[in-house]
Structures are given as C-alpha cells and as structure tokens.
Amino acid sequence: MQNPPQRRASPWLSRRDEDAMAKLWVKFQRSFRRRPVRFFTLLALYLAAGSLVFLHAGFTGEPRVAGSQRSPGAGEGLGLPYLGGTRLSRGFPEVAVGRRRGHWFKGMAKEPAERSRAGEYGAVRSRAPKGRGGREKEEDRARYIGCYEDNTRSRTLRGVSFFDYKKMTVFRCQDNCAERGYLYAGLEFGAECYCGHKVQAPNASESECNMECKGERSSTCGGANRLSIYRLELAQESARRYGSAIFRGCFRQPDNVTIALPASQPMPNMSVDKCVDFCTEKEFPLSVLAGTVCRCGFPTTLFPLHEREDEQLCAQRCAGEEFESCGTTEFLLVYQTQVQDNRCMDRRFLPTRSKQLVALASFPGAGNTWARHLIELATGFYTGSYYFDGSLYNKGFKGERDHWRSGRTICIKTHESGQKEIEAFDAAILLIRNPYKALMAEFNRKYGGHIGFAAHAHWRGKEWPEFVANYAPWWATHTLDWLRFGRKVLVVHFEDLKQDLFKQLKRMVGLLGIAACEDRLLCVEGQKDGNFKRSGLRKLEYDPYTPEMRKMISGYIRTVDAALKLRNLSGVPDDYYPR
C-alpha cells in the first residue's frame, strides 16, 4: 500500500501557525456573516477615500470642458446691422451648456505662483487721495464735504463709532456707516470712525485734517479732534435709517387721517425714538410724526406713500430733541418700524394645476431672485425654477424643489435662451438690466454667493476679463432670443422696477392672471428688499471695465435697443450708455 503524500512544510510558518491563521480567517468570515454592517461600513470608507482622491486630482489640474456648438441664426432675422466685433452668438468655445443647470464655465483657479504675485487680495488703489482737490471729487459711494471740529463732550456725528488702530481706511469707515443706514461717515485721529445722520459742528481748516489712515498711508483720516466727513451717496434702493427705523419721507396729511392712521398718541416732548417705540409697541409698521402727535398705521390706498413732499416742509424741530425734525399737523414725517407687515407674507402653492407656463426670464445678475421675491409677496403663490438651488430653497423659495413643469407655481425662473427652451413656455416676463451692473452682479454671485461679493483677487486676476468675454455676448443674445421666439413677452426693465415698483409689479401680476390687490402691493413696497439684496455701498474702488470692454458692450446695448424699438417697445434706459 502506498503511503499518503506528506504535507510540505512551509519554509516560513509551522503547521501550528498555519492552523492558527486559518482559524483566524474563519472567525473573520463568520463575524462578517453575522454582522454585515461592518462589511458595508468598510466598503463605504473605501469608496469615500477613492472619491477624495478623485476630487483632489480634479482640482490640481485645469479642468477640460467640452465646447458647445454654435447656434445658427442667433441674432439674425431682425434686420439689424452687423456691428463689427459685436457679432452675437449663443455658443462660446469655453462654455458647456447644461439643460437643467444653466451655463457652466470652466474653472478659473489661480496657480500658486500667480497668487503670490498678486497677493491675497490683489493691489488696492487709493480710496481717498491726499489733498482737498482729490477728496472733493464726486464718487459713486461717497462725497467729501469737509473738515469739522469734534470733541468728546458734544460729538459732531452722534451715531455709532468704532476704532481700528492698525487697519482703518476711508472705504472701511464709509462701508460700515452705510451698512447701518447712516448718511455721514467721519474719520478722526487716523483710526477712529464715527457715523451720523446730521453734522452738528462748525467747519475747521482743511490743514487740520492731515493724519494718515492707519491702514492706508496714501489717504488722510481726520486729525486731532478734527473729523474728515463724507456724505454717503447711497443708491436709490438703499434706505435711510434712524436707529432701527427706516425713513420713508415727508408726506401731506391724508383726508381721513383717523381712518388711514388709526392709532395716535399726543406727545408734548416728541422725538423720533418715542414715536417709533410707541408704534412698535402697538405693532404697526408705520410711525408718523405730526408735530406733537404720534400716529401709527399701515400703507393703504388712503395713505399710499407715493407722493413725497419737500423735506423742508416737515422741518419743524422736535420738542424733545433739538436736532431732530418732527413734521407738522399738515406735513407728516414717516418712518417704517421693525414690525413686519403680515398682509403680504402668506404664500402657498397653486390650488389647481396651472393651464399655462409663464417664464420669469432674465440674464444672470439681472435681479431674477429679487423679482421672484416681489411676485411671491404680491400674488401669495410660490415661484418655481428651471434649476434647483438649495440655498434659495432654504431661504424660503419652496417652489425651488418642484419640477418646473409641475404647474404648482405661479411662474418659472429661467436664464435659458435657446429656441427650444423658450418655446416650452406659453408666456414670459423678460427682465432686462443694465449690462454693466448685471455682469458685475453675476460675477459677485459666482464668486461670493447670492448676497456676497467676489474677492479683489478675482477682479484683478484673469477671471474677470474671461468672464466679460464669455458673458457680455450672452446678455444681448438672451434678450434677442426671447424677443424672437417668445410667444407673449412682457418686457420689464430692472431700473423701472426699482424706480416705480407699484406700477411695474402691477403689470407683472396682470400677466400672471392674478387680480392685483392694491393694499397687498403697498405691503410689498415696505418688504421689497427681503434677504436678497447686496449692500448698496460696498462697491469696487475702481472701474473694472477697460475701454475695449466698454466698446464691445456698447455695441451689444445698441443692438438690443434697436431690437426693442423694432417691436414698438421703449428702448433701453439712457443710463445703459456710460457717460
């Protein structure tokens, strides 16, 4: 009988060791059979690690984006002349167009070497040149008005103040005062910033305001007990504030004042604070000063706040505060309190499926989110979107999650401009904005979020020129395509909506097939900003547009203006053309 083959001994492990390892492996397998969760946990960790490696590889290299096909006939068929370098097209070599996600452009990340050359925020130009002549130059954000005396017992500017003995600059002081709604910003001792609504001191010699700013040696920030004061030239949409209240203006007393303003209280020692506090306690959104009587109410058709009077007619000194005005029995000073007007805050989905799809179409940066906010308040129904933006959904746009064809929303936000996409809608509100401002707004959104700002490094780097080259032609083709392929298009200029919100919003609501309630529209006027507005003052300290950019954009403006007039519509506003 042949003997069974002998087991070959491992040169590294003894038989006992092999048996121990086999038992360990069997125990390991049995453990995962009993508890499969462990197996899936390890598998998930493995996949997560692989994903991180993949993402890292994607960020270290320049991503390659497929180019889109040039659309034939874009901008054609309108009888418009060819404008040299301003030939229009929806297709850009650097752009990939996604149906649900809009236009995606290739990454513009700076290389480390470029970042080190430019610095974290790029070069910063002087915000307030030395010398009187330079400071008196008119700017969009503020105007220098002079050097004034100041002392600790009686401050020239009596609002908030803050100090920074290392980084104080003129722009930083102006920005902080504007964010708080003040009309004046003053700098002292090179590092102290004061805000206020009135300048309450005599002038001083300009030579006394000669201290350099701590954060910007090329500018002056007042002197010893001397304030360099700037009047903040706020944009029209920025509201003047008095503490927590917003100044609405001087108005003539309505005929039925007791009906229009139902709550009232005589105040022999009247002041703005006392009247605002009284109306806030009574839960009214309007605080109205009428000499020695404080009145409260809502904006209604009896008191719509549309016909403002000269503020000098309300300039009667308050009995309780010598530096404030309290109006008269005939001319009333109106402030808006922090009390929310709830007459236009209820919103819901449409009770039945809509029979028509209405687009709220605009170029990115033209105020589409703001217009959605206004429409939702005016109609009481949610607006939808061609895309999905989680940040907007979290801020209250509940229609953001619905599919754009669901029929449950009053209108659909879209930035699309292709013929197929446009013809999918039965009607459209076409919102048009000054391209210079729209491009900057979209650039800020792209690099800073819906209400944020792009960093200086992005403006100074290659991102801005590439952005303008790609987006400026799209501004024109977007409008031209909607005018050409849209079925029922209502053109609304962003600037007109800001200037006369009541009239323009009434037009927009009419197209949506909703009977406009005037009291509700008046309520919207008081809640118009919402949480979707950038600061009106935080602007660049220089013009980001080069002469070549302006020449190109001006050509696009002329093309759009001609297309609007060809359809018997009013052309673009005059301020679209740079002066």
TrEMBL record:
The chain crosses the membrane at residues 37-59. Pfam families: WSC. The keyword Transferase does not apply. The keyword Transmembrane helix applies. InterPro entries: P-loop_NTPase (IPR027417), Sialate-O-sulfotransferase (IPR051589), WSC_carb-bd (IPR002889). Keywords: Membrane, Repeat, Transmembrane, Transmembrane helix. SMART domains: WSC. PROSITE patterns: WSC. Coiled coil: none annotated. Residues 141-233, 244-338 form the WSC domain. PANTHER family: SIALATE:O-SULFOTRANSFERASE 2, WSCD FAMILY MEMBER CG9164. Belongs to the WSCD family. This is WSC domain containing 2.
